[in-house]
Structures
1.
Amino acid sequence: MTDTLLAVFYRDLVLSRRIGGGGSLAIIFFLGLVTIVPFAIGPDLNLLSRIGPAILWLGAFLATLLGLDRLFQADHEDGSLDQMLLSPAPLELVVLVKCLAHWCVTGLPLVILSPLFGLMLALDGPALGGVTVSLLVGTPALTFLGAIGAALTVTLRRGGLLLSILVVPLAVPVMIFSVSAASAAASGTVSFLTPFLILCALGLASFALAPIAAAAALRGAGE
């Protein structure tokens, strides 16, 4: 079973690199948003530093949504999903591994580059640290929650819009406490630990429950 899960993980990483558009598109979109916002708001550095964490998190959320519609759809089109349903490995673990591979391609580069992009928004050291840590914990939760929407729309050829409609309500709590934690680290006037611990709890809950829900949706689509 372990060999099967490792094969799925490696396969998704290789396909993402060969096909392109996943991680690179997310980074380009993230960079484009961070670059455009200062031009739209103006040269007020105090304002930029105040709303910088929210801008970075909004960019990360939208960038994560870009490739979610292909998380299971490509497997459905080439018949790989049927093999996964018949695999000796539990489908829930297969979904979990595919989500981790997707996050490594799309979410992890955003976490690594967020301090650099944060400098473009005039964030100081504590703010950069808070945003980076919150992205490290929160972006996997966005991927796992997005897997539910991807599984529900796997049979739709153009289900990207519907996927976004399904995922946004699920992601609202993650966004609220992520921005709260990052803003608390930036301001230093309120506790960073409280919203961060809630964010960790949301991340663990999505890690445990989202693969089960997504696997159930995939089984329903395969019937």
Note: Residues 2-222 form one domain.
2.
Amino acid sequence: MPIAASHSLSRRLSSLIGSDQAVSNLQRYFGAGAQHEVAPFRGSRFEHLAGGGDRPAVANTVTADDLIAVQTLSVRIPAQAALDLLEGDLGVRLSKLLSSVRLDIDMVEAEATDLADGSPAHTAWHLLRGQPGIGWVTAGKLLARKRPRLVPVYDQVVRCVLGRPKSFWLDVRAALRSDNWALHHQLTALRQAAELPETVSVLRICDVVLWMHHRTDHVQKNCSGP
């Protein structure tokens, strides 16, 4: 990613994350802090359901809990693909790829080769996306459930508010690493300010802030983002 483009995305992210509504939006979404008596969004269970998709016992295997977790983010994996992930060859192939995707690092710590075309993570995304009824959004959300620190949730709302970056994973990684990880540290501080546990990854903090900021405007016809 060109340096100028990286700085542009970093500035855009920093502006949104630093908005006056960021903390309250996070607390509203997760039912935390000042919003603890308000019913949280269903997506607040995405990373925590059944102990998380990256817990050691299941980190490289898609489980029924993972399939339910992605439904909290308003997507559904078709029955045939779900069965194949749980009991068939698709699950075996994905498990083999996941075993080569690190789960002990944040995106900001990853090498570009961990996320680029041809990497196990990117190959896993392509494998999922190639299944009938699984698009790019659903594929990404399932991988984010399995590797929440490394792979971000990404959908049409976030893509729109960020101006449709060309290579989202690598672009966000570059933005997080710029200026001595300034954006990463800003997100960590935001998580603390919203009184959220560290089990909510920095990437998820970023996703929720962006989604909450733009979700209402996005439903308007012909929304084209900023």
Note: The two ends are 21 Å apart (CA to CA).
3.
Amino acid sequence: MNLLKTITLAKLALITVLVCGVGQAHAHKVVTEYQERSSLLQYVIDTQPTLANLLTKAGLTPILSGNDTYTLLAPPEQELKNLENESPQKIRTILSGHILKGSYKESDLKDGATVETLAGTKVTICRKKDYTLVDGVRIVEANKVVKNGVVHALGGIIKS
């Protein structure tokens, strides 16, 4: 087993012990503190291995592990599997369209706003009563704050 997998399994074991032995409130605090110390890239490695592999193939890992802040609009793993056989350039184009310069929590994404992506394209925000859409794709899990930005899990891939 490689070192990254060993570290990730150790983190999961610690979280499991905390949830079972100490309680969910404390475990949530530990998970939140871990996320805020992790880079966008480390968070993706720990939570979405397919996305991590595609970001690596596309050459985007240095951007997400640096000190500049970004917002990652993370597509679901199942849909990302369809990109695994694409060229690195195509993957880079698609995934760059899911990265926003700057740190945007869901509340910062105003209805009707357009935000520029790392690919140079613009995405349009649509706020509904109970959820937010980015170019028609719903944010299904918002505001995972990490040390160099924010991650929002999407319900699909943004079509560019």
Note: The first strand starts at residue 70 and ends at 74.
4.
Amino acid sequence: MQVNHHSRESAEALAVQALGFVASDPELLPRFLAITGIEAQHIRRAAIEPGFLAGVLQFILAHEPTLLRFSEEAGIAPGEVGKAARALPLGNEDHERSI
């Protein structure tokens, strides 16, 4: 069994960076909002909900070209995104499941 080297704090920081990446992309943001069912003006409120940050990372992970672009921009290996997602609450849940 591999030890998870991501602390929750560093995983949250990466997820916040990922949210900024998604929010600044005119193609990704509408897709993210459609998948999550969140309205743009409610993102800040949703961001404090358990599982939201893991969902942001899972959204990045679900599309390889997006994962590679984000990883390059963040200066990390693509595998770090998955490790960070698993370090967050509900990180193994399907983020497309309705609440």
Note: The chain has one domain: 8-87.
